[in-house]
Design a protein that fits this description.
The complex is a heterodimer of chains A (534) and B (500). By secondary structure, chain A is mainly alpha-helical. Chain A is built from 21 helices and 4 strands. Chain A has helices spanning 6-23, 29-52, 99-116, 124-143, 147-156, 158-168, 173-199, 217-220, 241-255, 264-271, 274-299, 301-328, 332-352, 356-387, 398-401, 403-417, 423-437, 442-448, 450-467, 483-501, 504-533, and strands at 68-81, 85-95, 203-205, 211-213. In chain A, helix 3 (99-116) packs antiparallel against helix 11 (274-299), helix 11 packs parallel to helix 13 (332-352) and helix 14 packs antiparallel against helix 16 (403-417). With 500 residues, chain B is mostly helical. Chain B has a domain at 289-500. Chain B has 21 helices and 4 strands. Chain B has helices at residues 4-10, 14-33, 40-58, 79-101, 103-107, 112-131, 135-153, 160-191, 196-205, 210-227, 236-243, 246-271, 290-310, 315-335, 339-370, 381-384, 386-400, 406-420, 424-450, 464-482, 485-493, and strands spanning 63-65, 75-77, 273-276, 282-284. In chain B, strand 3 (273-276) and strand 4 (282-284) form a beta hairpin. The chains are: A mainly alpha (534), B mainly alpha (500). The A-B interface holds A 75-78, 80-84, 87, 123, 151-152, 155-156, 158-159, 162-163, 166-167, 173-174, 177-178, 181-182, 185-186, 189-190, 192-193, 196-197, 199-200, 231, 240 and B 278-280, 339-340, 343, 383, 397, 402-404, 408, 412, 415-416, 419-420, 422, 424, 427-428, 431-432, 434-435, 438-439, 442, 446, 449-451, 483-485, 488-489, 492.
């Protein structure tokens, strides 16, 4: 393993692919597709390699020494403004138990979504170039530990996503694309402001003893680094930490998407091509919750403790509201989109519990939701490719027409409902166990369990309307799955079943980090009250 | 008092002399060569190259030219001035190149001599605007720039909107420079001096009638505000930018604005300063509340520019409003009244020059072919002209300020300056403004890439030289977005204003 910069490699490999694709002549569409598949395939292998050599005992979160695969270089260094001190920005990558599930997820989903993109025939070159750029942005967010770098990756995804929805999307693609863009940009400008505020509130001590303002996330988590007069320092009596926390939280919440900032999601999903929906639901939404866990929690533990009830409450609203909306949908894809809103609510509820079981449940739910929803969107794509409609009422009895396909559908639906033996069950029950153990949010947790019932309701009802009953005459010619569709659905099914039967494989992976997080949050209670008390 | 001080000062104004010499040469060659005017732009290039050598030299200098016993000096030579002159010269290079390629300018071939002469007149005026430390010279240079640009804005004569632009420009320009002159006369009346350094020492020492002084300061600002198109002195901007030939619009939006900001910074920093503290904040004399003034001005300017741009259908006019909005962002850097703010302005201008000139370049190349700047005529152009489409996308994304383009770095430093000065509300307003701006910039990209052409595809090839210049403008926008140390270093070395 040595000093091979594997994280840089996994992050920037798609950029290399993008450049190669841009150099190819327009007509070589198959080569472009193969290159993309190859690159995302290599990413999966690299992610597997990361997993294989991952040290389960190291916690990460706030301790730079326990991060793994660290790469740290000086990126920007400007010395000698007399009044502002040195400016430095690091190229700082590393992963811990929070990020490795996300890295795995990103690699797997990117690979599967490449397969889902296979039938793209409009401006193929542009599509795959932008697609690879998007993959770099996503991977970068999950491995960056410098806030500036994190932000650059975060924004890097916006433009490719805009074009991918806007050019290759459905009839209302322009509207959906601009809505997505404006919403996320609005969120990210808030993040930017907090990034700058934190920059001026934290100073890192360099090797030579000088103090330098820093964008290093891990330094921001260490209270020793706060500048006494910084606007976001807890010891400053006039600090703006609360406002900054809200701004940052909203910035991430728009991506989750949390009610009431969720309205971009159904539009984006309905208009986006299948592959992009898969990416959007599979990976992009996780960035919101990942950001909250990675930044909001450890950088603002004091405010987080105060806001726990609200996070759980909004999680509950997401669960119930998303489920009710899903129940009312006539469009199959929109239904799945709203089910995403509902399922992301579980993640928020799990995060709010602040104990090992709940946070493990949340992170596991992020991974599971990624795989399950990706599968659901592929399922929608399969039927849309054949029938060119997603109207639920237009279908019926597909089970007799496409039995194998319906088998996969049933698996994915039951996983989404949370049937024991499938991955969704484990994460959802962990979330509820965690929430129930925490006094403050117990009532909210109890109400949230309604979500399971509603989830079963709309899922089974959909199953019945589309797959059971008699086949309308016009769908008698629909063919069952082809090889490409097997290649997408089989690996996801394996993951879903495997994690349902043997969830410890994933839980062990994140365990040290989740414990470190919980311990950090507990310790910080006393620490921060002593700081503000001074 | 003898001629010596004049001669001794000449080496300090080498760039200005080079520009004047080129101007004379252009007039002469125009007369000598008669109908063969193809050589003129190359003479202009030659003059600019010589000038740029002299400007590089000035980065190391710091002195006052034409100082006498009675007057501390008319012209300042310092790194700060050298930086803004460099921006002007860079813009001039591009603009001369644009002029060679522009169909609008080609159409009036017989008057090319005037055209380049006037451009050099403008450059000369801008140079003196940038380095003037005397109210008389400030006024004269401002007028030199204005008079040349009035004519250039209406240069093609053939089109109605050209003449309209020119006339509007004259009227607004005339009024605002009149007001400025009035302000100058009051300031002279109060202090008895036209030299900024002397005025500074006078107002620091003695008490001056408050209201009159405020009046003088604000009236002088009117003249400068008109040059940088800050609201509410911006009314000429959309009409002139839309009506003028594109090369001139590009020149006005970058060079003229740079000169205006240089003048503003120098005027404020030299005239009203009391001290600069160790944190880099300027403490001004408390007679005029410049801080509040600039805060309101920047909020009005950027909000108005951004919101008005939302409704524009003509790309040139939209870029005019966007340039008003950018003047608003730049005024944020003034509002903090600190060295950080100044650095941020310098960084922003470096980047702004690339992205704005680039955007106008694309607009010109497309207008040459399709004869329109209407955003709706850009439908599907991204497919028939991928190179131009992608270039325009890069420039517009950078103007929005998204990473990884250089525009983000520019905005980042402005916000850093604001947050450091604890002006959070202003930063929030500015950030929300940049979200608004996304909407109209992305509208162009939407037409380029998301829609199919209605009128059929325009097939044309981008020539090698055009492609080269385009890459020259677009590549730094990306490269400086990822690695911006060189820009910051440049800004650091150019922030020194003589006297502080």
């Amino acid at each position: 393993m040595g000093n091979f910069p594997i994280l840089s490699f996994i992050t920037f490999l798609p950029i290399v692919g993008m450049i190669i694709i841009l150099c190819l002549p327009k007509s070589q569409t198959l080569v472009m597709k193969s290159i993309t598949l190859l690159i995302t395939g290599i990413q999966v292998i690299l992610a597997g390699f990361l997993l294989y050599h991952y040290n389960y005992g190291m916690g990460g979160i706030n301790n730079p020494a326990t991060f793994q695969y660290i790469e740290k270089f000086r990126w920007i260094e400007i010395s000698g403004f007399s009044w502002i001190g040195k400016i430095k920005i690091d190229y700082f990558l590393g992963i811990d138990g929070l990020s490795i599930p996300m890295v795995l997820l990103t690699a797997i989903i990117s690979f599967i979504a490449t397969l889902a993109s296979w039938k793209i025939d409009k401006a193929v070159k542009g599509y795959f170039a932008l697609y690879l750029l998007l993959v770099t942005g996503m991977m970068g967010v999950f491995v960056a530990l410098d806030f500036f770098l994190f932000y650059v990756f975060w924004e890097l995804m916006l433009l490719p996503m805009y074009f991918l929805i806007g050019i290759w999307g459905g009839p209302r693609r322009e509207y959906a694309a601009i809505k997505f863009f404006l919403y996320t940009l609005l969120g990210s400008v808030f993040i930017l402001l907090v990034v700058i505020g934190l920059y001026f509130s934290t100073m890192e001590t360099m090797v030579d003893g000088t103090k330098v303002f820093t964008f290093n996330m891990l330094s921001m988590m260490d209270t020793h680094n706060f500048v006494a007069t910084g606007i976001l320092s807890p010891m400053n009596p006039h600090n703006l930490r609360f406002i900054a926390y809200i701004a940052l939280f909203i910035g991430f919440a728009i991506k989750i998407p949390m009610f009431p900032f969720h309205t971009w999601l159904p539009d984006a999903h309905v208009e986006a091509p299948t592959a992009i929906s898969v990416i959007l639901a599979g990976v992009l939404l996780k960035m919101g919750t990942y950001g909250i866990l990675r930044v909001c929690y450890p950088v603002f533990p004091d405010i987080t403790q105060k806001m726990i009830w609200w996070i759980a409450a909004f999680g509950m609203i997401n669960i119930i509201y998303g489920a009710l909306c899903a129940m009312a949908q006539k469009d199959f894809k929109k239904l799945i989109a709203y089910s995403s809103v509902s399922h992301m609510g579980f993640v928020m509820l799990g995060m709010a519990s602040l104990n090992t079981i709940g946070i493990s449940g949340a992170v596991l739910q992020m991974f599971n939701h990624g795989t399950i929803t990706a599968m659901l969107f592929i399922i929608v794509g399969v039927i849309y490719d054949r029938a060119h409609t997603r109207e639920i009422d237009a279908f019926g009895g597909l089970a007799t027409q496409m039995p194998i396909y319906t088998g996969f559908v049933t698996l994915a639906f039951f996983a989404a409902i949370g049937l024991p033996g499938l991955s969704g069950f484990i994460s959802e029950s962990f979330v509820f166990l965690g929430g129930f153990a925490f006094e403050t949010i117990r009532l909210i947790t109890v109400i949230s369990t309604l979500g399971i019932l509603l989830g079963a309701g709309y899922m089974l009802w959909t199953l019945q309307r589309i797959y059971l009953g008699t086949v309308p005459e016009k769908w008698k010619l629909l063919k069952d799955l082809d090889f490409r569709e097997y290649a997408m659905l089989v690996p996801l099914s394996i993951i879903i079943i495997f994690l349902g039967v043997y969830p410890s494989s994933m839980l062990n992976l994140m365990n040290s980090s989740v414990n470190a997080m919980v311990k950090f949050m507990m310790d910080s209670k006393a620490l921060y009250s002593s700081l503000t008390g001074l | 008092m003898n001629i010596d001080y004049l001669i001794n000062s000449l080496y300090l104004i080498k760039p200005e002399i080079a520009i004047s010499a080129t101007l004379v040469l252009l007039v002469l060659m125009d007369l000598i060569m008669g109908n063969n005017k193809k050589l003129l732009p190359y003479i202009a290039f030659g003059g600019l190259i010589v000038t740029s050598f002299f400007i590089v030299e000035q980065f190391g200098m710091s002195s006052l030219a034409f100082a006498t016993k009675a007057n501390k000096g008319m012209v300042v030579t310092d790194p700060f001035g050298a930086f803004f002159k460099a921006i002007v010269v860079f813009a001039s290079f591009i603009v001369v190149y644009l002029s060679i390629k522009s169909d609008e300018i080609k159409a009036s071939f017989e008057r090319h001599g005037e055209y380049y002469t006037l451009i050099f007149g403008m450059i000369l005026g801008m140079f003196f605007m940038i380095s003037a430390s005397d109210l008389i010279l400030i006024y004269l240079s401002l007028e030199l720039v204005s008079l040349s640009s009035y004519v250039l804005a209406g240069f093609t004569k053939t089109s109605k909107r050209n003449s309209e632009a020119s006339l509007k420009y004259v009227i607004y320009g005339g009024v605002s420079s009149g007001i400025m002159l009035f302000g100058i006369s009051i300031l002279y009346g109060i202090t008895g001096s036209t030299n900024l350094y002397e005025i500074n020492s006078l107002i620091q020492a003695s008490s001056i009638p408050n209201l009159t002084f405020v009046l003088a300061g604000v009236l002088i600002f009117v003249g400068i505000g008109y040059k940088i198109s800050a609201a509410p002195f911006h009314f000429w901007t959309p009409d002139v930018y839309e009506g003028a030939p594109i090369s001139i619009t590009a020149f006005l939006s970058v060079a003229s604005k740079a000169a205006g900001f240089a003048l503003l910074i120098r005027f404020i920093k030299i005239t009203f300063i009391r001290s600069v503290d160790s944190e880099g904040y300027w403490h001004l004399v408390d007679m005029i509340d410049w801080k509040t003034f600039f805060i309101f001005l920047s909020i009005i300017t950027m909000t108005l520019g951004n919101f008005a741009a939302l409704w524009q259908d003509n790309l040139k006019r939209m870029l005019a409003y966007s340039s008003i909005a950018h003047a608003g962002y730049l005024l944020l850097g003034m509002a903090v009244l600190s060295n950080q703010g100044m650095i941020a302005i310098i960084i922003y201008f470096t980047i702004y020059a690339f992205m704005n000139l680039g955007a106008f370049f694309v607009v010109m190349l497309i207008a040459n072919k399709i004869g329109s700047e209407d955003i709706d005529d850009y439908k599907g152009l991204g497919y028939s002209q991928p190179f131009l489409g992608v270039s325009l996308a890069i420039f517009l994304v950078s103007l929005t300020g998204l990473p990884p383009t250089a525009g983000f770095v520019g905005k980042l430093y402005l916000f850093i300056a604001l947050v450091d000065a604890k002006m959070i509300t202003l930063a929030v307003i500015a950030l929300l403004n940049s979200v608004v701006s996304l909407y109209y910039y992305i509208r162009v990209l939407k037409n380029l890439f998301l829609t199919r052409p209605e009128k059929g595809i325009f097939e044309f090839n981008v020539s090698f030289s055009n492609g080269f210049v385009m890459v020259l403008l677009a590549a730094p926008v990306i490269i400086f977005g990822i690695y911006f140390t060189p820009i910051i270093d440049l800004a650091k070395s150019s922030m020194q204003i003589l006297g502080f």
